[in-house]
Amino acid sequence: MNRRTVLQSLGAALGAPAFSSATPATPSTKPRLKSAICAYSFRDALAKKTMTYDDIVHLAVDTNVDGLDMTVYWFPSTGDEFLLPLRRLAYRNGVEIYSISVRTEMTRESKELRDKEIEDVKKWVDVAAKLGAGHIRVFGGAVKNATEDDAANWCAEVLARGAEYAGKAGVILGLENHGGITAKADRIVQIVKKVNSPWVGVNLDTGNFEDDAYGQIAKILPYAVNVQFKTEIRVVKGKREESDWDRLAKMLADGGYRGYMALEYEAREDPKTTMPRLLAKLNQLARKYSG
Fold first, then answer.
1. How far apart, in whole angstroms, are the C-alpha atoms of residue 106 and residue 143?
2. If exposure means fewest CB atoms within 10 Å of the residue's CB, which of 16, 97, 262, 263 is most exposed?
3. Which of 22-31, 68-77, 177-186 shows the lowest per-residue confidence on average (mean pLDDT)?
4. Spatial distance between the Cα atoms of 46 and 169, rounded to a whole number of angstroms
5. Residues ≥6 apart with Cβ < 8 Å to 67
6. At what angle do helices 185-195 and 213-220 cross, to 10 degrees?
7. 5: helix, coil or strand?
8. What percent of the chain has pLDDT over 70?
9. Nearest-10 crossing angle of helices 111-131, 148-168
10. In the beta sheet, which residues pair with residue 137?
11. What confidence category does residue 268 fall into, taking pLDDT thresholds of 50, 70 and 90?
12. Phi (first) and psi of residue 243, to 5 degrees
């Protein structure tokens, strides 16, 4: 290959369109899976202040985990006095705060309330940018006093307007399958396609579908920008069973996913004693299925 051909190839690559959530990722010949901790796993300790977000950074180091999805519910502040030292601590320890998780309700009936949701999203985009996080987990919301079609349209409206702001900060909004308007994979895909933004994708939670979880996961996997692993999964409505993590990781690899697998622990055992064992398993899967 001569120099001109190389330059032409490079130019084509650089000029290729950015990821669009409306265009599923094509399977990659070299999957890249990375392990992460979702701070929600330590919700009780964080709420009681027996654990800090700094502690989660140190846990990531101790368990050889790559990244952190920092649920914001127990942030003591959203000011620089909290955010910047946390970012520095993570950087100095070689851990990436790649995501934050926030509460949103994008299906609100009135325009005024939807406008407020958008302003809240903007606030969290600014927080994510301060932490160096490139992703925010958001919820679609419940379906109340409206048809499902109306609720889906409102959700898409808020996501689209939020994405306009998020994109300017280089932050992706990941819509989670979390009941309500996002209870079913087909509806999630419809919403994400309607928004049609490179700054909107799916935050794939393996434990949240009510039935046929593996089948529904397969439908939204091409749009996934973050994945949360749980210890249980529903294959039949109302019945939980242990998640087949190997099967899930292989699905991600075969589907061309490149990104984080964040452990979100919700079972009864003490996460401080259980998480290290589970994170070791997650690390093994990341190595097994990465090219």
1. 10
2. 16
3. 22-31
4. 28
5. 34, 35, 36, 37, 60, 95, 96, 97, 98, 99, 260, 262
6. 10
7. helix
8. 90
9. 40
10. 101, 174
11. confident
12. -70, 140
Taking alpha carbons only, the member of 67, 42, 26, 29 closest to residue 275 is 42
Judge contact between 37 and 60, C-beta under 8 A: yes
Is residue 35 within 8 A of residue 279, CB to CB? The reply is yes
Checking if the pLDDT of 3 tops 80, the result is: no
Is the distance from CB of 220 to CB of 191 less than 8 angstroms?
no
Select the more confidently predicted residue: 20 or 64.
64
User: What's the rounded Cα separation, in Å, for the pair 121 and 119?
Assistant: 5
- H/E stretch holding 153: helix 148-168
Rounded to whole angstroms, the Cα distance separating 92 from 96 reads 10
Statement: residue 19 has pLDDT above 70: no
Stretch 181-209: mean pLDDT: 98
Long-range CB contacts (< 8 A, 24+ apart) of 46-51? 46/73, 46/74, 47/73, 47/74
For the chain, helix, strand, coil in percent to 5 are 50, 20, 30
Q: Find tokens 């202040």 and name the residue.
A: 49
Q: For domain 32-289, which CATH number applies: 3.20.20.150, 3.40.50.300, 3.40.50.2300, 3.40.50.10420? A: 3.20.20.150
Q: Is there a contact between 154 and 110 (Cβ–Cβ < 8 Å)?
A: no
Closest CA to 152 of 203, 218, 106: 106
Instruction: Look at residue 26 in the predicted model and tell me its pLDDT.
Output: 56
What value does the mean pLDDT of the chain take? 91
Place of tokens 């697998």: 261
How far apart (Å, rounded) are the C-alpha atoms in residues 99 and 195?
21
pLDDT digits (tens, 9 = 90+) for 144-183: 999 999 999 999 999 999 999 999 999 999 999 999 999 9
